[in-house]
Amino acid sequence: MASYIKFEVSSDVMAKTYEALKLASTTGTIRKGANEVTKSIERNLARFVVIASDVQPEEVVMHIPKICEEKKIAYSYVSSKDELGKAIGLNVSCTAIAIEKEGEASDKIKEIVSLITGKSKQ
């Protein structure tokens, strides 16, 4: 397991995360790639962040969970950067995604956050 992964995510939660990303990418606003995600978090625009678990080198994304925690932004992991890219309609892999406007994915994101944290997000 990569050093930046702070908790395990079930395959059920990953499947819901991919669905939420598909919805958010078509009905909301997302930022893709480690640099854009970092900027989105630092500017307090990100509402939910998803990080791939298979990023090499790890240094590319290892700062993201820490700044999410500092800014109190919910985040999760998915197993594959290739699948992460596909979920938002890219033909290339993607290391991380920040959802800035949830669009129709709002309820799904709330459900994912409650499953990850064990508590509901307002």
Compose a concise summary of this entry.
This protein has 122 residues and is α+β, with helices and mostly antiparallel strands. 43% of the residues lie in helices and 16% in strands.
Describe this structure in words.
The chain is an alpha+beta fold. The protein has one domain (11-115): Ribosomal protein L30/S12 (60s Ribosomal Protein L30, Chain: A). 43% of the residues lie in helices and 16% in strands. It contains five helices and four strands; from the N terminus they run αβαβαβαβα. The chain has helices spanning 11-27, 34-42, 64-71, 81-87, 106-117; strands at residues 29-32, 48-52, 74-78, 96-101. The chain has a four-stranded mixed sheet with strand order 1-4-2-3, with helices on both faces. Helix 3 (64-71) links the parallel strand 2 (48-52) and strand 3. The radius of gyration is 13 Å and the shape is globular. The N and C termini lie far apart (31 Å).
List the SSEs and their pairings.
Elements: H1 11-27, E1 29-32, H2 34-42, E2 48-52, H3 64-71, E3 74-78, H4 81-87, E4 96-101, H5 106-117
Parallel strand pairs: 2-3
Antiparallel strand pairs: 1-4, 2-4
Helix pairs in contact: 1-5, 2-3
Order of strands in the sheet with most strands: 1-4-2-3
**CATH arch. level architecture:** 2-Layer Sandwich
List the helices and strands in order.
HEHEHEHEH
Indicate the overall shape. globular
For CATH, the homologous superfamily is named as Ribosomal protein L30/S12
- The whole-number mean of residue pLDDT values reads 94
Tell me the major beta sheet: 4 strands, mixed
Helix content: 40-55%
Strand content: 15-25%
Number of domains: 1
Radius of gyration, whole Å: 13 Å
Look at the structure and give the CATH class: Alpha Beta
Terminus-to-terminus distance: 31 Å
Question: Residue ranges: pLDDT <50 for 5 or more in a row?
Answer: none
Total DSSP helices: 5
Oligomer: single chain
Query: What structural class do you assign from the helix and strand content?
Result: alpha+beta
Give the number of DSSP strands: 4
